[in-house]
Amino acid sequence: MNSAADEPAAIEGAHAAAAQSAAAAEGNELAELLGELQRLEQLLPPAAREHLSRLVAPEQVTHATGIYPPERVTALFEGAPPECNESKEAAQARIVERLRFLRSTRLKQPKGRRPGSRDLRPFTPGEIAKGLKGVTVPRATVYYIFDEGRISGTETIAAIERFFGVLPGWSAYTEEEALTQFLRPIVRQLDVLDQIAGARARGVTKVAARSTEDLRGDPNAMRAIFSAFIAANKDGAD
């Protein structure tokens, strides 16, 4: 019979096993998504395939996920294993790196000027602190986060993420989690097209297409894919 002293070790082991199982499940999902994306891409007409290539271009994926540089995105698409260093230090470094990425890519447009890349600049720590919703954060705290890499509380990090237009937790995503979150809605929408094609092959002429509002990356690109797909199928039917 196990003694009481053995119970904490057993519980810790169970938690570790559960974490490994969850990580494995996430990895399996990413591999499945990449495989399904490749399969579904082959079913698209050329015009739709072109729109899809822009939607999942490395630069676009980098901007949406924070996985940098774009060459790293290319490697992941080609089957390179995601980074698996999940030490506390690595996780904190990733959060700081992603927050700095947001600041360098989500730039401020000065008021009273016409949109132009020459006028864009990073938000200052004071502007970020002033623009945070739901929390009061001193300018100095924001400065320490971005300039010295000091991690603050989770509420502060989440508020900064919302300020830059991403979901809370975005900065903490591993490569695997970030790419999975990006690809999941895209593959889901492409699967709808696959179902439409199957329905038309069976003689069904009217099908309901799912909304693209859950596709945060670029809903306009996905609508263009839908339009190109439907147009190609209409021409084929004629």
Can you walk through the features of this model?
This protein has helices at residues 7-41, 46-55, 58-65, 70-77, 88-105, 125-131, 139-148, 154-163, 175-201, 219-237. The chain has 238 residues and is mainly alpha-helical. α6 crosses α7 (139-148) and α9 runs parallel beside α10.
- Average predicted confidence as pLDDT: 82
Determine Rg (CA atoms, Å): 22 Å
Number of domains: 2
Helix count? 10
Largest sheet properties? none
Q: List the helices and strands in order.
A: HHHHHHHHHH
Number of strands: 0
Question: Beta fraction of the residues?
Answer: under 5%
Structural class: mainly alpha
Keywords:
about 240 residues; 10 helices; 2 domains; single chain; disordered N terminus; mainly alpha
What's the helix and strand layout?
Elements: H1 7-41, H2 46-55, H3 58-65, H4 70-77, H5 88-105, H6 125-131, H7 139-148, H8 154-163, H9 175-201, H10 219-237
Helix pairs in contact: 1-9, 2-10, 3-4, 6-7, 9-10
